[in-house]
Write a structure and sequence with these properties.
The chain is mostly helical and 406 residues long. It contains 20 helices and five strands.
Length: 406
């Protein structure tokens, strides 16, 4: 009973982008979007090699996943790739077990909605299954409440770490294959699970509500002002939903640029496949980035050599264009109205469940947003200056943009 009460209260951290989805949803590209991106990218990349396995078994050989499914399950449902790869099927009668089958059914409904949007049905409402995910996966809420690495700069920093690990595992799989070791196949599968885990953070870097959302600094600000972690998550969610949302008033998303020189409008989660003015670059560029990431992975597996220098996929990752207004202006308080934002939150964000969340708290945070963005810039500069190995992996233009993020 205690665990159930905590679960009900904790779902308060989760919402979706878009005015028709104001109750609960996790702060990320939705799972169905991750699956479509990952599967398309995988088939393009492995198709060049003429060796495409449609799915990969985890260590126990029982459960199999497509590459897109691995991206969707990574980070939002499992803390690391090893946990996902080494998981064993739990008995049906076990309480609070990870229910993969039920979660997959929810994924499929998201995919169907995305397909409907791709087919031009603009009135399609992307489903919100965060409550279902939370009930199906015991660690879902905890990961959502500690998801700072899914947001601006930090997601690509995490991608670098996880992708480097994937390349190391790919090189190891190459060595085992060359020596005829019987464990070569399992080593490659484990490396692919790790590659997908890395690509989850890569894809998050393309979601407009993530690009400059000061999630880590919002938590620090909230703590220093006596607010709970759950209320800090609500503050982050308000920024997430407003920055780059396609609205009826005509906004096309967040104007972005990348180190390669592409310009487009980034979309928030649940709106990735919305054909706004026929512009499909938001989908094409994130799909290409994952394809490039996989190309590098397979090249390492084929040669056994881990590349030096910049990771090419990051050249496609967006940052705000010069024409984009700063975050404070993009989420102007007169546009979202604190009382309306407060009312839109589900009942479990209101007293007695979360006593420090109120319209006044929202206003206070908004007024402090320039200070929070100053904290974000300062923190990022400290990280870059103290991490020469990280900077070697990042394009100069990307680094410069985040040194001056606003």
């Amino acid at each position: 009973m205690v665990r159930s009460a905590v679960l009900v209260a904790s779902v308060a951290t989760l919402w979706a982008c878009g005015k028709n989805q104001t109750s609960t949803s996790s702060i990320k590209f939705s799972a169905g979007e991750h699956i479509i991106i990952g599967d398309q990218s995988y088939h393009k990349s492995c198709g060049k090699r003429g060796d495409c396995q449609p799915s990969f078994a985890r260590a126990d050989g029982i459960e199999r996943y497509s590459y897109g499914e691995l991206i969707a399950f990574s980070a939002d449902f499992y803390e690391n790739a090893t946990e996902l790869f080494r998981e064993k099927r739990e008995p049906w009668y076990q309480l609070f077990r990870n229910n993969i089958d039920s979660t997959r059914k929810l994924f499929q409904e998201e995919i169907q909605a995305a397909q409907s949007l791709m087919d031009g049905h603009r009135d399609t409402e992307y489903p919100d299954f965060s409550k279902g995910f939370a009930l199906n996966y015991r660690n879902y809420i905890n990961l959502a409440e500690h998801n700072e690495d899914h947001f601006g700069f930090y997601n690509i920093k995490r991608y670098v770490t996880e992708h480097e690990h994937a390349l190391t595992l790919a090189a190891r799989a190459h060595e085992l294959r060359q020596s005829g070791d019987a464990g070569a196949d399992e080593a490659l599968r484990e490396a692919l699970f790790q590659a997908a885990f890395a690509d989850h953070f890569l894809t998050d870097g393309f979601a407009s509500g993530h690009i400059r959302n000061p999630r880590r600094q919002t938590l620090a600000w909230a703590e220093s002002h006596g607010y709970s972690r759950r209320t800090a998550a609500a503050f982050s969610k308000i920024l997430h939903d407003r920055d780059g949302e396609i609205r009826e008033s005509g906004e096309h998303g967040l104007a972005v640029h990348n180190a390669r020189g592409d310009d487009w409008f980034a979309r928030c989660d649940s709106q990735l496949f919305y054909k706004n003015n026929g512009d499909t670059r938001a989908v094409e560029l994130v799909t290409e980035a994952v394809e490039i990431s996989l190309d590098e992975f397979f090249a390492t597996y084929d040669t056994g050599k881990i590349p030096d220098g910049r990771f090419p996929a990051i050249a496609l990752v967006p940052y705000p264009a010069d024409s984009a207004v700063n975050l404070t202006e993009a989420v102007r308080v007169d546009r979202f109205l604190p009382k309306r934002a407060y009312d839109a939150m589900a009942w479990y964000m209101h007293p007695p469940f979360v006593k420090d969340f109120s319209p006044g708290a929202i206003t206070g945070f908004y007024q402090s947003l320039p200070e929070v963005m100053d904290m974000m810039r300062s923190d990022i500069n400290v990280i870059i200056d103290g991490s020469p190995g990280l900077e070697e992996r990042l394009p100069e233009a990307y680094v410069a943009a985040y040194r001056n993020i606003r």
